[in-house]
Amino acid sequence: MYHKSRFAAALAAVGCIGLAGCAAQPKEGSAGANAATLSVKGSDTMVQLAQAWAEAFMKAHPDVRVSVTGGGSNTGFTALISKGADIANASRAIKPEEAESAAKKGVTPKEFVVAQDALSIIVNKANPVTELTMDQLKDIYTAKVTNWKDVGGSDAPIVLNARESSSGTSTFFQEHVLGKGTPYAATAMLQPATSQIVSGVGQDAGAIGYVGLGYLNDTVKAILLKKDAGSDAVAPTVANVVNGTYLLARPLFEYTNGEPSGTAKVWLDWVRGPEGQAIVKKLDFVPAE
Amino acid sequence: MTPAVDPGVAPGPSLGVGSRSRAHRGQTFAFGALGFGTMLIVAPVLWFFGYVVYHGASQISWTFLTQPPNAIDASGGIFPAIVGTLYLMVGTVLIAMPLGIAGAIYLTEYAGHSPIVRLIRLAIVNLAGVPSIVHGLFGLGFFVLFVGGSIDAFVLHASRPVWGQPCILWGCCTLAVVILPIIITSTEEALLAVPSSFREASLGLGATKWHTIRRVVLPAALPGVLTGAILGVGRAAGETAPVMITCAASFMPTLPRGLNDQAMLLPYHLYFVVTQVPNPSLGLQSGIALVLIALVISINASGIFLRMRARRARKW
Amino acid sequence: MASPKRGFKERAVEGVVFSGGMASIVLVVLIFLFVLKEAMPLLREYPLIRFLTDRGWQPTLAAPEGPWFGLMPNLWGSFLVTAGAVALSVPLALSTAIFTSEVAPGWLRDMLKPLVELLASVPSVAIGFVGAVAINPLVKDLFGLDTGKSAMAGSIMLAFMAAPTIATIAEDAINAVPRSFRDGSLALGATRWQGIASIVLPAAKPGILAAVMLGVGRAVGETMVVIMVTGNAGVLPDKGLWYAFTHSVRTITGTIGAEALEVANGEPHYRALFMLGVVLFTITFILNAIAHYSLGKGDRRAQA
User: Does ipTM top 0.85?
Assistant: First the structure.
């Protein structure tokens, strides 16, 4: 029976530790933006970038603890509005509905461009097609065109890869390529995360997909985009984003609740400063300016 | 593989012998087909393990097991994911064990044959069959938003979520619901295996019912009870869907600091690396899968082994 | 120890274990009610008839008529993947069950049984990972498909997840058939196989049915594997069964798993995912109830 009481004691001890942990936590959490913790939530596109920032930032500011969570741009805004995050990452601008529900809860989202990206259209390396117009791209993703031969390729069916509908990337693509309110073709495979698109396009000869610059590798080929049949074909590169010629360049945002102060301000200044922007370059994104 | 078949027997003139040998040929064919069907299950299983080991083994190193992952490409190690999974295993079993053991004691020692018992059994079967993603939805809706949200709103009056967000505690609660049927079923089996003469002897000596259960029945059933706990822990360690929306973080700069912190978890880390991290190497993915499979299988194998020994070692 | 005190303690203990026993019922009811409660407000903004008949799942569409939350493509995908998995796994799993319990010599049985049990415990995310990196390309090349991310790949992977469930429970059912049934048929001059086919299997039928139902439940409720290998395209069949089977589908579980992380609490999309959860819970509840009652019937028959 000694065993049993010892087990009970161990249980109680674990319980106490747990409770102590809980008791300590609320204070830390409710201290607001001036506390030495910073919670960054949102866009999956930016999650690696934000993690890299967090790592370097915490080396420069050992007294601050930055936690980064992905989950998508939607999640970021939701968390910002419910005050579950200090910073919301987003690969799209805030929607009017979101701004409205923020206002209802007394939150005033303030927007900062922290980096840029070229949303790159990728196909399998074996695909002879090298460029597409925006209209062709739209026809492909709305299944008006379902064979590569109709856009100058070989006779093979097109396999559509897109992102899950609630991701900011998916929303951006929908608004800028398909047109707001135009649905993706039902046959589009909606992948939960970007790496799935890259591996799918690498596997399937007839596949097409869209990913951020940082995901390009040698199993896929980035397509050059043209505004229409007569205009120049532009590659998704850092230079073409900077000079404004690439059609699917997109800003990446961080949002705060009101004018940032305290740790959030230090963070945003650092992120937009030389050190933060060096990391942007290192991860194959495009600097904010 | 097919005994009792005599291939040398020629079909005789009598109808009886002819149909007998036809029947034997039928048996040979049927047993061959069954063996082939079994092969079709076994061979891919062996290939599966071979695949993961072949691609993942070279990844395993002391560094891999003890270092955090690199924030950018998840290379490096998986230490925080291992720690998070251990936290969740312990927490889950601490919640599920008392509940499951109490439930099993009720079913075997108190309930008798009342209609409510039939209802409880139906509930256990259904609880075991609830899809893991529905457990996740329940965990999100009930534990995180309802219970956690209520604590924040009415107890702490917190201006920002403290408990009303995915965290270790709610992950443990959700997983405890997932493994509860396993614990009840194993414990019940163990309790039923304790002969009623034990109980009668104890009661006959004047002990109360609870005293009998605590001092006689439970100790005798202990190996079986532990088996249930171990199998439950094994299940908890490998589940992704329920914790993906109630607990898991894709990356954390430090280890979790409290029950209301999120945690990195091995199964979710594998999912995250496979689907999200840019250009992960096959070795890295397989290495994580290998550690996860090794962890879960060794837990389960020890549970199965313990159960076998407990069944054989019964002295009554 | 005074006796009233002891009586109190006894009653307290009884109360505690009774609540432990009731926990399962409470939890099942709570799960259903909570998922339902979170789902119901959807119907205020999105009529049930549209949920049941809309042909598309476009939960963030900014169209004038609002987003589409169509159950049908999800249900169809779940059905197709599960049907394929059942067609593959039932014959193989039953073969395994019969082979292990009736045919295999002792040493082989001792190897096969733990192997099947270990397969049952492999985390689904690991199976999904191997499916995505190895089985998708394999399926594509074997059948000359445009992409390996298909219902077929999902069915193959789910077959391996359902097989151990089916095999283990079916084997228990076969083992529960009394020895005397077999001896009787052998004594009548039948071969062992004739005995198995005409006496043992019919006697074990309720248990085998339960095994299949639980296997179906496992397949229809599996999430991580289908997210990773089926491609998640929300289509309805319009070009025949084989075409559908060899192309991408979207399942109920896949939709919930992929989107639950990204929805904002309380918005219609969040409600719609819970509504899918209600559908899924109902399907598995029916399957489990059938399994439970057919097992009960088997027990009674064995006792009789």
Answer: yes
